[in-house]
Amino acid sequence: MIAALNRRQALAIGVSAATTAILGGSVLPAAAANDYEDLIKKFTGGKVPTVGRVKIDAPEIAENGNTVPMTIMVESPMTPASYVTEVLVVADGNPRAGVATFRFTPDSGIAEANTRIRLASTQWLHVVAKTNDGAFFMAKKEVKVTIGGCGG
Amino acid sequence: MISRREFVQVAAAVAALVPGGWSRSFAQQRMTQAELLKFNSVGNVTLVHVADIHGQLLPVYFREPTVNLGVGEAKGLVPHLTGRALLDHYKIPAKSQAAYALSAEDFAALAKSYGRIGGLDRIATILKSIRAERGNRVLFLDGGDTWQNSYTSLQTKGQDMVDCMALLKPDAMTGHWEFTLGEARVKEIVDTLGFPFLAQNVRDTEWNEPVFKSSVMLDRGGVRVGVIGQALPYTAIANPRWMIPNWSFGIREDDLRKEVANVRKDGAELVVLLSHNGFDLDRKLASRVAGIDVILAAHTHDALPEVVRVGKTLLVASGSHGKFVSRLDLDVRNGEVKDFRFKLIPVFADAIEPNAEMAAKIRSIRAPHEAMLGEVIGKTDTLLYRRGNFNGTLDNLICDAMLEERDAQIALSPGFRWGNSLLPGQSITREDIYNATAISYPAAYRLTMSGARLKEVLEDVADNIFNPDPYYQQGGDMVRVGGLAYTIDIGKPAGQRISGLTLRPRGEPIDPAKDYVVAGWASVNEGTEGPPIWDVTMNYIKRKGTVAPVEADHIRVLGS
After folding, report:
1. Is residue B264 pLDDT above 60, yes or no?
2. How large a percentage of chain B has pLDDT more than 90?
3. Per the CB < 8 Å rule, is A60 touching B461?
4. CA nearest B520 in A: which residue?
5. CA-based nearest residue in chain A for residue B418
6. B327: closest CA of chain A, how far (Å)
7. Which residues in chain B have Cβ-Cβ distances shorter than 8 Å to A64?
8. How many CA atoms are closer than 13 Å to the CA of B551, on its beta-carbon side?
9. Which chain B residues touch A60 with a CB distance below 8 Å?
10. DSSP code, position B277
């Protein structure tokens, strides 16, 4: 016979914690509208960002999708003449693409920030930096959110 | 400039064919300790490496894989050559001792000629001999997966392995399965080891500070050697995170670059990465992180009779279960490796004299449990093995046990790469089952899972193995299945590899919306309930008396 199952057991091997937390057990509609491209366009005013100068430090595979450590760094002298003003972080697989926007001034010293983010599933992080002269730079990185449990 | 002087010494030792039917004693005559240890030494530093012993104090039978598929840039490269292709690649004669040690070709027959391999007492003899010859040039490094996966290592929480390894006096180690003993126990052992446990890539989750030493500087043969440790980056995903809740892993490539710079700054003329990344990951890492002279690879259990070179970095893969000891002689001058010579020494138990001190220690550890472990619970008519990307016969046995003992429709068994082999006709003892199942989270769960969820699980595990980017590979093999058949196209992207899921034996398609009763073990989730998997398996074998699981034909593999 089947022992009475609580939700935890039912999920024991079936699903990552992140999916549970965000979706509350419901099923994500396939191809849910994730507007990361729109958010980037809005941020850049339609300009296509140049790839480079931005670095994303995040794990290749998240240990816990609910709290994924992430550091973003942008190469910049950070002087009144040349500095990063804003950095946009979007996730292309979350129900909502927006993750964070960081604002900097020359007084920031360096254009670097770190935080912990929530990722519903395996997806790409897109980071776009804006400089005071209106240029845009970007980088992206894939972070896997996995069930795990069979390595060894 | 490095002159290419390394060659397949392991094969050269016995180049002649051993025709079928030669007696075991004849085979052994050709295999002497002197011949196995023979080495034309070179240079001023000797690295000795073992890895992935998995708690095995005694010699074992261990059949290497027939299916070990490489993807992406690793496709068709070692260590993804198996069987004949592997033997041809290294020009190893069929049926030779090297063929037996390195491939699955004629395994059961050759096992009868060449016997078991491994045993820490034999490894002790090899080390002693190398140290006698090379004195203070020797550095002995343990790549981890040492403290777990046998009965005594589970029962003593790793103490048996710690005590035995202490006799070998390692200079450093790193880890993976060690962490399944939990944070407190790992800390407790590390504090009393007497040599450093190195892991540059483990941080506490609160302050992101290193939990272990990242590196150690050692003077050998007049050369300053910097050894950096790298634990399995995916320990907190592949194994229960709740056992190590305050530790975070990861590849941490940038931190590794900084550590290489640090040890160079401190005067290291030779930089060694003692790694538990897995071979493909290490191969990629070697192409991206400059300044590492040698990577001692582990985790994926590959045994390679030659070093693999990536740029200036030498990669060594030393096998598993105590089957091999790697010896790498290096001529280091002016901060550069000018020359090297390598030998993957197979630890043939019948040819290598056991070291008396280690043998006595092993006996004393095993004495209280010997009678229980030796109890025969059944017999196998077929070769039992686990290693390979998909179900081995040993996994089929465990899956069959779960299906019957737990009355389930589908069984899932983890794709561990450890677990000894048993020859056809061999008795199955309690110890044999512990050697295939001894983990600190053994509960055999039973639950219902929808067809959709089941596919998701298979897809997820498949991507951990067949993602073309090695930085996304966790190691391990595909989750083993019972009661289920499927097709896998390893070349497809994540989420699209698995198709044709059907329920065995009748072949009815798995319905994504329908629930199925699934039995499994080794869940990484806290609070998993069920009897330990060894009890489930032993009960089944006792009931059957004789088992004869056959090769898997329920998994179709495409895209390889």
Report:
1. yes
2. 93
3. no
4. A13
5. A152
6. 24
7. 241
8. 7
9. 233, 250-251, 471-472
10. S
Secondary structure (H, E, C), chain A: CCCCCCHHHHCCCCCCHHHHHHHCCCCCCCCCCCCHHHHHHHHHCCCCCEECCEEEECCCEECCCCCEEEEEEECCCCECCECEEEEEEEECCCCCCEEEEEECCHHHCCEEEEEEECCCCCEEEEEEEEECCCCEEEEEEEEEECCCCCCC
B322 and B402, same domain (yes or no):
no
| CA gap A51, A36 in Å, rounded | 17
- Which pTM value belongs to this model? 0.91
Total number of domains constituting chain B: 2
Please report, for the domain that includes residue B381, its CATH number. 3.90.780.10
Q: How far is B93 from chain A (nearest CA, A)?
A: 31
Record: contact A144-B463, CB cut-off 8 A = yes
* Of B319, B340, B364, the domain-final residue: B364
Q: Does A114 touch chain B (CB under 8 A)?
A: no
One domain, residues B410 and B313: no
pLDDT in tens, B221-259: 999 999 999 999 999 999 999 999 999 999 999 999 999
* pLDDT, tens digit, 9 for 90 and up, residues B392-430: 999 999 999 999 999 999 999 999 999 999 999 999 999
CB atoms A148 and B234 under 8 Å: yes
